[in-house]
Amino acid sequence: PHPTMANVICGGITDSPGTVNSVETISLARFAIEEHNKEHGGLLEFVRVVNEKRQLVAGMNYFLTIEATDAGKKKLFEARVYVRAWQNFKEVSEFKEVKSTEVQEFKHVADSYK
Length: 114
Hints:
Elements lengths: L12 E3 L7 H18 L4 E13 L1 E12 L2 E12 L4 E10 L1 H13 L2
Antiparallel strand pairs: 1-2, 2-3, 3-4, 4-5
């Protein structure tokens, strides 16, 4: 099995330690920002992925906490990107700015699905 997939439970949201700097995760975060910018006329610029969780469904949901700049000011965003790799399909199903306290809430809610 894929090393990052070994402990994935279908339907459960799991941490993905060591993957926030992976090419795949960074690519998904950049995709989420690009889609947000296209849909909302934004000018967000990717800085880094702060956190990643995954949920195995009929495909994979990636829950990303992303740091980006907006007019030079650093902000945090939560994005959910749904991927069906075998169909070469991906979509951003959620993208929102969050305050630092909300990031902790997001992590807590995601943890409750384990």
